[in-house]
């Protein structure tokens, strides 16, 4: 068997085989207000499903994490931070990290640079007001990082981004403003693909059982454990926090604990560990230059010719 399918796995703390964070995005009705601005008030069923997150799922998840002595990272839009402060305050009190996730779940790659800057800064005010500290991590809504985002994050002192999917381990994004650590995930670790059927958001996936979904999530973990990778979920409280799915999360954590040699940590601690390795020369990650393309690539032929 290959020693590792990862060419350059980082050394994890205490000889761990892999690093794990159950990261969540708590969007709540920011999704409604960005996609159905004029009709959000009339979509009560959808709103009730989204509100399940802060009122039911978050307390449930906090208890699960407390049982296993785990701390996680939850990315929350600024509007949702201000609208549901009780959930945010409960997460912070339990020791969990709150990451930046835009203001109203705006997709950065649909905005001008100035507009994206305003969105970033407006949400930072929510952190000052409710969270009590500035975020060090960012995840673009819908993974929609723009060609400007990395520069804007560097200018504001962020430690890491968590929007991209370019490796199995942390790597560096280099832009004209400097460098930023990327903590990547993958669509295979997104619960939206497994569980969400919501036509109002353009998503009509067949809903999988928790057992089928966990087959995917566990297989990805087993690969990370075998080869020294990074396992970061992209889950949503109103989705994975539902009763049967939350019960399946407990089983997944039990599997991870039974495997042993797993470093469970919030993403800010994963980022700090990697930055420490880089600073001491103990490990050198791969670097991607951002943006990937600066000019349009023209076709050699037109359609049909």
UniProtKB/TrEMBL annotation:
UniProt cross-references to InterPro entries, sorted A to Z: Glyco_hydro/deAcase_b/a-brl (IPR011330), NODB_dom (IPR002509), PgdA-like (IPR037950)
Signal peptide: none
Biological process annotations from GO: carbohydrate metabolic process
Molecular function as annotated in GO: hydrolase activity, acting on carbon-nitrogen (but not peptide) bonds
Residue ranges of domain NodB homology in the record: 44-265
Function: Is involved in generating a small heat-stable compound (Nod), an acylated oligomer of N-acetylglucosamine, that stimulates mitosis in various plant protoplasts.
Family note: Belongs to the polysaccharide deacetylase family.
Name of the protein in its database record: Chitooligosaccharide deacetylase
Organism per entry: Microvirga brassicacearum
